[in-house]
Amino acid sequence: MSSSVSVPASVPPVRVLLVEDDELMRRSFAVALERYGYAVTAVADGLAGLEAFRDGPQGADFDLLILDVMLPGLDGIGLCRRVRESSLVPVLMMSARGDGLDVVAGLEAGADDYVVKPVDTYVLVARIRSLLRRATYAPAEGAGTAPADGGAPPEGARLVFGDLVIDTGGLEVSLGGAPVALTPTELKLLLEFAAHPGIVLERHTLLRNVWDYGWDGDSRVVDLCVQRLRRKLGRDRIETVRGFGYKFRR
Asked: Cα(246)–Cα(35) distance, rounded to whole angstroms?
């Protein structure tokens, strides 16, 4: 039995855009999420989703997007790409069971995570909460420098790796002096790598620390997010250690 979550009146609800063409699923997900305190805008096709994103409340100020892969008009993958042209808002893709290629395409388009339908409400809410934690990640203010031993950097440190600069307090990244736009998941993954330069991090460790997954998480989300980081930061920045995981070069 699900239970509602009490949200203080002074705290604005999390705004979710749900794009799902199946009417029963759309209504079911919307009602379930509203019971957990989310403010849901639900639409039935990709073009309507794009319009809602552009013209939504407070200038399309959604906190999270949930996109089905298979949508009429404009599919979820195309919609995700259009969203990523102007926004780093967290995106959760929904895919039918067994559509592995759709999962890969959605993550390559810029989605942060995915769930496979049919999905239990508890699982969906858990993934949403995980995504929102990444989106609101902000270390306490402070000062310091990157440790030489590969340990966690002090909160608020300015980390320098050649022409790559990571401000862990301001959550800003620059490459060659130019700012680099990263999604919340890409930023948290980069911070995890930067906290352990020169150390091989296994995929299940990254799933646990970045995606809040246990051992049953899908390592494709790690591999594809690493690919996106390489495209933005340079292919040689993150080394693949075959059979183990990835290593961030000092």
From this structure: 40
Q: Alpha helix (H) ranges present in 92-146?
A: 100-108, 121-135
pLDDT in tens, 7-64: 444 567 899 999 999 999 999 999 999 999 999 999 999 999 999 998 755 445 899 9
Question: Is the distance from CB of 81 to CB of 73 less than 8 angstroms?
Answer: no
Long-range contacts of 208-215 (CB under 8 A, 24+ apart): 210/134, 210/185, 211/113, 211/130, 211/185, 212/126, 212/130, 212/133
- The type of residue at 10 is S
For residues 239, 106, 90, 16, the Cα torsion angle rounded to the nearest 10 degrees is -170
Q: Residue 212 sits in which domain range?
A: 158-248
Give 100's contacts (C-beta < 8 A, 6+ positions apart): none
Give pTM, 2 decimals.
0.75
Name the residue type at position 60: A
Domain count, the chain: 2
Gap between the Cα atoms of 237 and 220, Å rounded: 19
How far apart are the C-alpha atoms of 164 and 141, rounded to whole Å? 21
In angstroms, rounded to a whole number, what is the distance separating the alpha carbons of residues 112 and 197?
A: 23
pLDDT in tens, 128-179: 998 888 776 544 333 233 444 444 454 557 889 989 999 888 889 999 999 9
Domain co-membership, 101 together with 23: yes
